[in-house]
Design brief:
By secondary structure, the chain is α/β, with parallel strands linked by helices. The chain has twelve helices and nine strands. The longest helix has 14 residues. The protein binds S-adenosylmethionine (SAM).
Length: 284
């Protein structure tokens, strides 16, 4: 590894990552270096002309080897930013995606627009707890309950809640089954990838838990019972459910939602790329 300067080191690592077919190689190189050397972004910027700390180069090489094997960067650094907060992640949980922040925004807007004072909110399939914890911190008067069927995910969500100072109630179990209350808002980012598309996933995505991704033959294995469960768990008035979906299954989910909730206002919400990413079911 070059010891000329941090700037040259970044270029050399970015080149190795790019040659391995990794997109965003420059960004990954900077983040790996920051993580290996324990630097903030500002510190890294200030040290660009300096030689890198030689004692930490072996550690950096080890992290780089993992990334070259296509391990997701966030599992290597152990964290990801979601809704302006840092969440710990490891291979027990899906890495929260930026588009999922839309569920948080929708839930907050609904609660505020109806001035619901102490909303009871459920996050089903919570994974790292990113959605539930964000909502608990953004809406301090809310009671937030979350479920996941994975014991490992429960552990990660619990650690994140403690680290971020969020009070949420976590339940291990299938969808809404562990919950007894009626909710003002239910949010969920369930597994929804068509089984036939699982083989075409980016290598990094295949390192995430299959339980978090695989939606079965038609992508609806989890969404179908989730919609049934939501029907019995939402308060009859001034309540809403927001479910993240994969664009290819949008029409099928919309049809199911109309069958389950004939009296609700139902719509598809697009992500920043203009793709149908969330189904909104609202009772005014
Ligand atoms: C797509 S991940 C979403 C994680 C997190 N909510 C996020 O957005 O980053 C789906 C999660 O659903 C969980 N899961 C899968 N089947 C489930 C079920 N039947 N009941 C509850 N959780 C389930 C998985 O363990 C995984 O953590």
């Amino acid at each position: 590894m070059t010891t000329e300067s941090v700037s040259v080191l970044i270029k050399s690592i970015a080149g190795r990552l790019s040659n391995a077919g990794i997109s965003d190689a420059g960004m990954d190189a900077r983040l790996l270096i920051r993580h290996a050397f324990g630097w903030s972004a500002e510190e890294q910027l200030g040290r660009l002309p300096d030689p890198p700390p030689v004692a930490k180069l072996d550690h950096l090489e080890g992290l780089l080897a993992r990334r070259l094997e296509r391990e997701p960067l966030q599992y290597i650094t152990g964290n990801v930013e979601f809704f302006r907060r840092r969440f710990n992640v490891d291979p027990r949980v899906l890495i929260p995606r930026p588009e999922t922040e839309q569920l948080v925004v929708q839930a907050i807007e609904f609660v505020r627009s109806y001035r619901i004072e102490s909303p009871r909110i459920a996050d089903i399939c919570t994974g790292s707890g990113a959605i539930a914890i964000s909502l608990a911190l953004e809406l301090p008067s809310a009671i937030v309950e979350a479920t996941d069927i994975s014991v490992g995910a429960m552990e990660v969500a619990s650690q994140n809640a403690t680290a971020l100072g969020a009070e949420i109630e976590l339940y291990e179990g299938n969808l809404l089954e562990p919950l007894k209350s009626k909710f003002d808002v239910i949010v969920s980012n369930p597994p929804y990838i068509l089984r036939g598309a699982m083989a075409d996933l980016q290598v990094e995505v295949t390192r995430e838990p299959a339980l978090a991704l695989d939606g079965g033959e038609d992508g609806l294995d989890v969404i179908r019972p989730l919609l049934t469960g939501i029907r019995g768990a939402l308060k009859p008035e001034f309540s809403a459910a927001y479910i993240e979906i994969d664009p290819p299954i949008a029409d099928a989910v919309l049809q199911l939602a109309h069958q389950q909730f004939p009296n609700a206002s139902i719509s598809l919400l697009a992500d920043l790329a203009g793709l149908a990413r969330c189904v909104a079911i609202e009772f005014g």
